[in-house]
């Protein structure tokens, strides 16, 4: 393992990491390792999804451990991206299963740390995630490219204001199309509600309809659909 450097930078230049792990001992051990890095500081150890959501706005990177259980961890990733859209999410403890990784990518994670990765791997991935970069294996990269290809093929039908999309599904209403563009800009439901002066619940209903109509599983997929679709002439 590489030597650690503990000459800390100025606080504003450091990567603020939130640890989400149900086991306090594990959380504290990871925190001790990260605090040895000159460019990192741990802003909190959340032992539940509820605690993580409270602290989400205080971090640059949230390191979510799958010891929460995969379903709960996935739900938390979706919720964190909603509550703290500027925070990057890194999931810890995955196996290199294409299906498992794709589920978390669709939920909004920027990267992952495998269960058998080293401490140095984890630190490298935290730094890369903070910069918005994802380090993935060739196998996972191939799966992601195939998924993008599927979205690209779906996007050959334009997203118009009304009617049907040619694949048997309904197309987006003008309001849904407006919300889709705001999703693509990275806005949360709350931010969209403030922008359009409507209730958050109304935005959630629109987002649900958008995902159903575009036949995608996440906000990120919907944004990718919009980015890849052919322009309407």
Mind explaining what this structure looks like?
The protein is α/β, with parallel strands linked by helices. The protein contains ten helices and five strands, in the order βαβαβαβαβαααααα. It has helices at 24-35, 49-55, 70-83, 98-107, 119-130, 138-154, 174-184, 189-196, 200-214, 219-228; strands spanning 15-20, 40-46, 61-65, 88-94, 111-114. Helix 3 links the parallel strand 3 (61-65) and strand 4 (88-94). Helix 6 packs across helix 10 and helix 7 (174-184) crosses helix 9 (200-214). The chain is globular.
In short:
The protein has 233 residues and is of the alpha/beta class. It has helices spanning 24-35, 49-55, 70-83, 98-107, 119-130, 138-154, 174-184, 189-196, 200-214, 219-228, and strands spanning 15-20, 40-46, 61-65, 88-94, 111-114.
Order of helices and strands: EHEHEHEHEHHHHHH
Beta-strand percentage? 5-15%
The CATH superfamily of the largest domain turns out to be Response regulator
Largest sheet: 5 strands, parallel
What is the general shape?
globular
Q: Please give the number of β-strands.
A: 5
How many discrete domains?
2
> What is the overall pLDDT average?
80
Name of the CATH first level of the largest domain? Alpha Beta
Q: Measured on Cα atoms, how large is the radius of gyration?
A: 19 Å
> Structural class of the secondary structure composition?
alpha/beta
Q: What count of helical segments does DSSP give?
A: 10
Which strand order does the major sheet show? 2-1-3-4-5
Stated plainly, the CATH topology of the largest domain is called Rossmann fold
- Fraction of residues in helix: 40-55%
CATH architecture of the largest domain: 3-Layer(aba) Sandwich
Low-confidence stretches: 1-5, 160-168
Give the CA-CA distance, first to last residue.
56 Å
């Amino acid at each position: 393992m590489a030597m650690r450097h503990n000459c800390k930078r100025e606080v504003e230049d450091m990567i603020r990491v939130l640890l989400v792990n149900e086991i306090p001992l594990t959380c504290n051990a990871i925190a001790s390792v990260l605090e040895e890095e000159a460019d990192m500081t741990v802003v909190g150890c959340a032992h539940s999804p509820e605690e993580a959501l409270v602290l989400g706005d205080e971090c640059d990177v949230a390191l979510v451990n799958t010891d929460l259980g995969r379903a709960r961890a996935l739900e938390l990733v979706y919720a964190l991206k909603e509550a703290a859209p500027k925070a990057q999410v890194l999931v810890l403890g995955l196996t290199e299963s294409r299906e498992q990784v794709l589920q978390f990518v669709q939920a909004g994670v920027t990267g992952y740390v495998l269960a058998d990765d080293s401490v140095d791997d984890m630190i490298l991935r935290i730094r890369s995630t903070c910069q918005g970069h994802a380090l993935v294996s060739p196998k996972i990269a191939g799966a992601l490219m195939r998924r993008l290809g599927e979205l690209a093929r779906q996007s050959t039908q334009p997203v118009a204001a009304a009617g049907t999309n040619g694949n048997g599904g309904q197309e987006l209403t003008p309001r849904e199309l407006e919300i889709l563009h705001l999703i693509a800009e990275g806005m949360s439901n709350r931010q969209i509600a403030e922008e359009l002066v409507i209730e958050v619940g109304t935005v959630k209903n629109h987002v649900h309809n958008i995902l159903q109509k575009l036949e995608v599983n996440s906000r990120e997929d919907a944004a990718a659909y919009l980015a890849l679709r052919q322009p309407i002439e």
